[in-house]
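User: My instructor asked us to take a sequence, write out its structure as tokens, and then describe one feature of it. I'm not sure where to start. Here is the sequence I was given:
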Amino acid sequence: MAETLREILLTPDTEPKVIADTKTLIDQELSDKSGVSATALKLAYKTVTSFAPGYFNDTLRDMLPLIADKLEPFWEDFNTAGGSEFGDYLSKRGDEVSEALLSVTDTMRENSRRPVIIKAYNAVRGSARKHIEAALPRLGDLVMKYAS
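Assistant: Let's start with the prediction itself. The structure tokens for your sequence are:
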């Protein structure tokens, strides 16, 4: 039986690498963006990453198990179907996958006690789905890197 995403991504040796790769993925996605919504997104990212030393890294560490859980049903279906490219699989289900992932950040916003973070998140939430959908191929590649 295939391993769960938690088993693949959250081992003590692997998790720090996944977090570093996730930061790289975010940086790549941001550098690919342009226009008004990209400016707001880049400003929100700058706000979050400069908020406090280590805050962004800690947030990614907290989010990773939740994201793995949200991706798990897609991962199981992908493996059952015998797919070869998880990024393509995710992209074909973009609406569903992006909403599943946004449920993680929406919950975090609801539980946050940091007004500057909430404000930054609210500024980009309206366009977040399209940005997540654009990142799904890279996200799938990241997962496959560790699943191989």
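For the description part of your assignment, you could build on this observation: Residues 55-81 form the longest helix (27 residues). Try explaining in your own words what that tells you about the chain.
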